[in-house]
Each structure stands twice: as structure tokens, then as C-alpha cells.
Amino acid sequence: MTTSPSTTTAPLTVREIHDGWTVRAVGGPVPEPLRDLLDGTTAVPAGVPGTVHTDLLAAGLIPDPYLDDHEALLKWVGHCSWEYRTTFDWTAGGADRHDLAFDGVDTVAVVRLNGTVVARTENMHRRYRLDVTDLLRVGANELVVELASPVREADARSLALGYRPQVNHHPFNALRKAAYNYGWDWGIDAATVGLWRPVRLESWSTARLTGVRVLPGAERAADGTWDGTLDVHVDAGRAPGVDGGDLRVDVVVTGHGTTLGATGAVTDASGVVRLRVPDVAVWWPRGYGDQPLYDVEVTLAAPATADAPGAADAHAPGDGLDRWTGRTGFRSVRLDTTPDADGTPFTIVVNDRPVWVKGANWIPDDEFLPRVTRERLAARIGQAVTANVNLLRVWGGGVYESDDFYDLCDERGVLTWQDFPFACAAYAEDEPLWSEVEAEARDNVARLSPHPSLVLWNGSNENVWGHRTWGWVKRLDGRTWGLGYYEDLLPRVVAELDGTRPYTPSSPWSGDLPIRADVFPNDPAHGSMHSWEVWNRQDWPHYRDTVPRFMAEFGWQGPPTWSTLTRAVSDDPLTPESPGMQVHQKAASGNDKLTDGLLAHLPLPDDMADWHWAMSWNQATAVQVAVEHLRSWTPRCQGSVVWQLNDCWPVTSWAAVDGDGRAKPLLHALAHAHADRLVTVQPRSADGGEPLGDGTDGLAVVVVNDTDDAWSGEVVVRRLGLDGGELAATTTAVNVAARGAATLLPGADVSTPADAGAELLVADFGGVRGLWFFAEPRDSALAAPRLETTVLPAADGVVVRVTAVNLVRDLTLLVDKVVPDAVVDDMLVTLLPGESVDLHVTLPAGTTVDPAALVAPDVLRSLNQLVGPA
User: How many domains are there within the chain?
Assistant: First the structure.
């Protein structure tokens, strides 16, 4: 190898540049009391990673954007341009090359080092690396990043590129920035600015790793074991003056009793190392097996020379120039879209096994992304696991999620699908947008490649459907709208840099690529489907009208938990229509849809606490009805991905976890509907073969077994009065295959009520119960709840033991009303007369609680309270 005389084999060193930053406005409508920010007389300390909003909030210069109508007060922030500035000391060392690395710049920026422009950025979704070797000074160095107004920049670029339709009041589709930052039908309009991911100085000599792609695979061997394959692709950059010769890359894989290594050459700029791992420990989704992970270390080294110490040892210590470490898991994945008698399936197959997806859509967990820590992600993914979720879909109006997010999903066995950041809009395919999209796609496909949880790349959210049905064709007037990304650029990048995971062009999607004009992109018989007619224009029993092959989006709104709501909104009086409540309801006609969707089931309460409970119950019930319906049609339907798991601020929305991280009743409804073993009562035709919305023409009991063991026994179906008295019964022996379902028709005597408002159907099988109420709650004879309660101490809190004297429907302990950060282990429990339940309440350390408060009528709620007389 020929090198310049100054080249060394010293390893790459990293210095974070996160300290000493300040921020000030350099243009735009700064309010008069804060004008010092504009002329620079006030230095505001800035956090990096961070955003301007969080910097101003930490300095006490603005109110919390999430409270009351502060959103409107703070819109000026996104209309301003901002300057981040810091200095750092530097001393020349032995390295030949020095790079400034920015992992996330939000968004349009000019970067200057010591007065010289070193970069102009315009993409929040990619990383930047800048050679500053010739600009560094011994001693103090000044680094300045000037960020343009995200609102004005989007407007200007929309004019430059030409109008494209979108669903917002800002043209977010003209800029490669997270769309949700400009507001959504659940999101705050607080367009962010800042250095949102780490900044560092990297110093190196000879060569460094510019990219590492780790692509694990697994194949079943003849003896039933699995053999793993690990392809490690590396790209390397060379320091100036380094000519010719090959670099060496060493790969070591460790885990589960295995340590394997291999070495390959990096010729010119790239190299590939392949390792075979016999009898590998296979990674499985949760519910299907374990999640073994292997450590991978990739070392870039200069080949030892004959007279160098350790030249005889290919892995001699001290010869590493750069090193990458990570984890991966071995598994195979494919998407089955082979046409069948029912249309086109959409089945995710992991390790040759179809997976019934019990999913939830994931949005960014905060408007201000640097606040989303690993601990916060762990809590949120833990809540998904509590809800028996096995897949999170990272929605395309957000970001490519962090390595922490994917690490945690790898560990918990939660499958992930990652949308490319295109959502609900037409996108120009012109420069400079095309090149920016390619750069971000290459960056993130490579970055996320090691993660076994990632099983699907998806090109866009609703854009193909939108183009077909939302009036875009006329408005576009011949302009490009993004199809070139979805059918050409993105699948080409995925094939080149990944090749181990399936790709779809959009969600929903009919299963064809290229996209066919003769197949509607949201046809329930073909591919994935989104269902929004039910929420927008129909009542939730209509979920049962359709049997999709895969439901990728559907949902129902509900308010945040009481403690979150009353923290965020200080209206007095607090009502569904009070000013702060309306600010925290972003859906078009959202409150009207909440009301319309409730009245068929319950009278509209006039009391605010009752309204809150009624809407929370209706949200949970609507989604549980949908999920149980979808699961009852396995294997014709192979998945349900509810909109949505989480929120980015405190708001009335479709989320199961509110913006303060508290579980709404919906989370527990999902846990019930996603249970591995499910007994559900469903409307069916007389032969059990067709869905029927309201059950007036027939009922079936469907037993769903999403485990690896057969489920055998007797299903007991009873028609009961609300007093618990048995009116009719039948017993049927059943054997449900592993990962299968069985449909039982109990017969007219059992399934036909004499008095619909005073009767219910109860199906019990192996300790699992399904219920069917023949009448809507408002038309039923449900009486006020009569409960016997005891509060018992427990190691980490208390146990609330509840016995029902009469039938109590959907008993729910709204424990956050008493202790905001307390957590209860279950909600929405229906008790027949004489039955009991223990509700385990986990309390923050050192917290005491008044037992009487936990069982007060406004805390220990039931559906009965919204129907029966007080």
C-alpha cells in the first residue's frame, strides 16, 4: 500500500460538539418583548440536539406550546430565521482528515466554520459530513448554522417547484421535512427549526468507514435447523494522498455460543464480507418465538506490512482505522401477494410462517423530536406490548425512526414497517427534490439494514389512493406527483442496498407493481386497505361490513386521559366546545363526528366528566369491534394496524396512548382484542359465510387461536338475562388448530332473544369469554352499578377488588384522576352478577393514596353509569 508520509494507522476519533451553543433570530416577526433576540443583544442558550422551541421554553421566553391556545401565540417561531452559534477549541494531532458530521439538520441551512461556508442543507431526513481539514485553527474555532424559516421556505419552494395538492394549510410537500411538523388532524402546527440530531468532529487518517450495511438472512436446513448468512457491505473513504492498495475489513459475529470471523478486501471504495453461521438462533416476532440478537463488529484496517509488528496476525491489535459495532438477528421475511380465490392477499411471512399482524400505526412521539429519549421509546413500545401489538408501522408523515426505536423493537420482537416520508400529498419529481430523496433513501436504507424487526419498506402513505380519488389529476394539470419515486427510485434503492425485505409503493396498495389502472388501490379484496368511511361518515358497527385482506389503517377518536386533558386545557368551565378543547381537536368536524358516533349507542351526556368517559368508552369499543371482526376472518384477513398507538402532544385523537404517555381505555381494548386466544361473537349469515352488520339475521361464535398449540375443549354458549339467569344454552366440542380459527353457529334458540334489551349472549371456552349484547346500551335495561369494593395493599401499589352485585358492563378504573402517573393493569371488564375482579394499580414510588378516592363513582366507572338511573 502506498501512502503519503504523514499517513498514520491511528484509529478514528470522535468529539461531540454539543456544548456552548446559543441561538438567536436573524429575521422574521419576533414579538416586541423578545426583539433582543433579533439584534443579538440576548444570547439564548441552545441545546444540541434540540430545537428553537425547546430552547426558548427552557429560557422562560415562551409559554408551553402544548397548553391552551399557545399554539397560536407561537406561530411566529416557524416564520423566523434562526442562527445557532458555538465555539470549540482544537489542537492539531496526528490525523490527516477532519470532518464535521451533522446527523440531523432541520432543515434549510447554511453552515459556516470560521466564516467560510462549508455546506448548504435542505433535508431533515439525511446526514451530512463536511471536510473541514483546511479550515480548522489551532485554538478557538467558530461554528455557525443559519436556519431558514421552515414556513417561508416551504412556501417559496412550492412556488419554485409548482403547486402540488396536499392536505394541509402549509405546502409541506415542497420540502424534505417531517410533514407532521406543519400540523395534522391530530398534530400541533409548530414548524420546528434546529440541530435535531448529534453534531461531532471526526478525525482520521488513511481511511474511514463511510457506510456499513449489515444484511442478515436465514434458511431452514434439511434437518430442520436454521443456517444464517450475514452479508456485510462496507464503503470506505481515503484520506488525501492515499493511493492504491487494498484496505482490509474484519467482521466478527458473537452471540449464543458462537464467535465467527471473516476478513475481506476493500478495493477502491467498497468491499463485501459474507459469514455463514450454522445452526443459528433464529429471531422471531413476539408470540412466535424468542428474539436472539448477535453482536457484530466491523473493523477497517490497513494491511500489515512485512516489517510491522504483528504482521503475521491478520487481526493484530492497534491496526484498526475505524470501527462499527451493532446488533442484528437472523430471520427471513417475504410478503405474500399471490392471487387466490378471494383476491390478492397481503401476508407478512417470517421464517416461512405467516404472521397475523396485530399492529398499530406509529407517529413521532413528540412535536419536538430531541425530547424523545430511549427511555421514552422503551415506555411506549412497552405499552404496545401490553396491548399485544406485534407490529408498528412508522407512518410516512414523520421521520425515519431512530436506531433506539429499532433497537428496542428488535429486543421486544415487535415487527416494524417503515414508510418513506411521503404522506397525503403529491410530490414534485424535479430537481433538487429528486436528488434529495435519493440521498435520504440511500442513507436510511443502509442505516436501518441490521435490524431484524424491520420487515417492510413502504413508498408512501395514501398517495396512490389520493391521486386516484382526491381530485388531484385535474389540479396537477400534467405535473409529476411522485409515482416516479414509488415505482422507480425507491424500489431501486431498496433492491440495491437491501434486497432482503419486501417493498410496497404505497399504503393502501392493491398488490401490483407497476400499479394497475384497472385495480382500485383501496379495494378490500386486493392487498392492503385503509378504512376511513366508518369514522368520517358511518357508525362503527359498519366495520363488520367489509372483509379486507389486510387493514393497514382505521380508527376512532377519543379524548386524552382526564389528567392529561386538564393539564393541557385550563378552560373554566371545561366543556367539549370550550376554546381550549377546540384548539386540542384538530380533525375536521371532529366533535360533530364524536357526537354522531355516540348517539346510536348512548345518550349524549351533559356533564363533562361523563362526556369524557362516554367518548373514551366509545373509542375503545369501536376499535375492539373492528379488530375482533378482522381476526374472526383469519386467514382471509391477515392483519389489522390500528390508527394510532401514540400522540405527539395532548390532543383529542385516535391514539391509544395520549400525549403525556398515559394509556387510554383503548389500549386495554386492544389488549383484549389482540389476545392470543380470542372468543368473539360475530354477526353472520345462516351458514356462517358472510358478515352481517348488526346480528339481527344470525350470530356465530368464532374461536381464534394465535398460538403454536392446538386449542381443544368445549365451547359453552349461554343466553342470559341481565340478572344472570340462564335462558338457553348449548355446548359444542371444538378443536382449533394452531394459528387457526373455528366458527360455531349456536342455533336460533340460543342466539335469538325474547327481550333484546334485557338479555346477552355469553360464550366461554377455556377461560376465555366472548359477549354479545342484543341491544344498544341506550336501549338496554342496564341498571346503575351495585359494587362491593376493597382496596388491598400490594408491593408496588394497591389492588382494588371489585365484586358486582348486578351485571356491570365495561368496569374501568380511571386511576389517573387520583394519581396522574399511576397505572392500572386492566380496563373494560364486564362482570356478571356475583363475579369479581382484582385491578392491580402500580403507584409511583413513595406515593400514598386514599382508598376511598379510588372507588369513587367518577373514578371507578362503568357503562351502566351512562345508561341506568343514578
Answer: 5
